[in-house]
Design a protein that fits this description.
The complex is a heterodimer of chains A (114) and B (117). Helix content of chain A is 0%, strand content 54%. With 114 residues, chain A is mostly beta strands. The radius of gyration of chain A is 13 Å and the shape is globular. Chain B is 0% helix and 52% strand. Chain B contains no helices and 11 strands. In chain B, strands 2, 4, 5, 6, 9, 10 and 11 form a 7-stranded mixed β-sheet that branches. In chain B, strands 1-3-8-7 form a 4-stranded antiparallel β-sheet, with no helix packed on it. The N and C termini of chain B lie far apart (36 Å). The chains are: A mainly beta (114), B mainly beta (117).
Chain lengths: 114, 117
Amino acid sequence: AQSVTQLGSHVSVSEGALVLLRCNYSSSVPPYLFWYVQYPNQGLQLLLKYTSAATLVKGINGFEAEFKKSETSFHLTKPSAHMSDAAEYFCAVKMGRGADGLTFGKGTHLIIQP
Amino acid sequence: SAVISQKPSRDICQRGTSLTIQCQVDSQVTMMFWYRQQPGQSLTLIATANQGSEATYESGFVIDKFPISRPNLTFSTLTVSNMSPEDSSIYLCSVEGWGGSTYNEQFFGPGTRLTVL
């Protein structure tokens, strides 16, 4: 079975500060990992994905994430927060290629302070 | 990415009734999935909609409650049957394996916001 843990249901940072959203996973096989963002009253948008290529993955809107197998982590970062980054962020895992859906973490609500 | 539409976008229904949600994709896709997002919660996979065969349901979800159809490679429906207030959620379809995209990249529809009174 696979699972995802997102530490911190709410994270608050100042505009211009570093954003760090934490995600740890468990999987019995090498996983595929994803970060999605959900803006208020909107659908999910894929930010970035790890699929066993480079461990440092760059996504849209200046976000990036690093896959660390030894720590079973896939934390999301952005060097400088912008007000428009305020949203709900979901980490998700999929066990390899195949007809599997995604297992999502509980989500982290990112708050940007002016 | 694939363009995914869902109908209806929202609905308010009475207890005991059923609602069918449609998911339409603008290109043929291999995999289609249905998820539920309860108020203030994360997403939970309901089932995988298989073209030409019965859907594969996750633990806690059954066909009698959530019948699914997938008549072709661009369309699927999810029915929420005999609804109760606990079924109030956002229901989302997602797709994987379309056109020129890589596998293991799921795109989501805008969701259907269901309120059951």
